[in-house]
């Protein structure tokens, strides 16, 4: 099979032919139809995750995976309802199944978790072995290139906004800011409208093309923050919404300056959910967080239930996409473009 592999960190992926993997009895072999390209793929190539755990090469990146079932392992139960040829998406976060997080369904935060695309096999290849419990059947009328990014770009902000909603941070008298309108932020705007219980949605970004996408996807207001002071941005926010603070923020970038801006704009008892980590450190004043009784939510990817809900929204036609399909041979080119923040929407490798 064709595979794009990390043989050395900080180097371009090597595009080569390798053997199709065998599967364990409890696994299925997925023939990859499409795989989204994520900022995390760039961070992986650039060695970022080596700060948190050893991922020895060779590594096949790519974790936004969809395709068809090619083969089913011998002990996969019939009750799983899987058949060869089924259209599926691959759920992230393959847990050990026995820890307290796995027991309540949050396999993606298991201490012993395995991630597709962060080891020997990932979506930048024509086949991947997957434990049968981590594939979800999807409606066959959905396009593979649109399904792929929903497994991360479309899943991650969904869980983050659910956290804000469930904590009481959304409602008809609230204003939620979406920070960073990249691959995740374009979906976050839509979820903020779908789940926001009538909250006003404001998109913040530096790129006018991305802000235009946010507006077309339902943002009530858009604010260009490039080169502007916090005070100026707050004034524009007040003109647009009647208040200069945000009751909730979903941050899809996690950049240092953007987080400083976000916390400066966060209202008393506000909720801040971060799903991005372009930066690896934040530096913000502590007292306003304490005195304003603000809540910070870390939110990472999503579980099987979250992904099933996103798939249901997609099947009902309630999610829009900004997709650029690319070929296998273009992977390194688009990793460079992703690194330079020049991809609008989501680049998706289509096989």
Automatic annotation (TrEMBL):
InterPro entries: ADH-like_C, ADH-like_N, ADH_Zn_CS, ER, GroES-like_sf, NAD(P)-bd_dom_sf. It holds the Pfam family ADH_zinc_N. Its cofactor is Zn(2+). Residues 11-349 form the Enoyl reductase (ER) domain. Keywords: Metal-binding, Oxidoreductase, Zinc. Its EC number is 1.1.1.1. PANTHER family: ALCOHOL DEHYDROGENASE 1-RELATED, VACUOLAR PROTEIN SORTING-ASSOCIATED PROTEIN 11. This is alcohol dehydrogenase. The lineage of its organism: Bacteria, Pseudomonadati, Pseudomonadota, Alphaproteobacteria, Hyphomicrobiales.
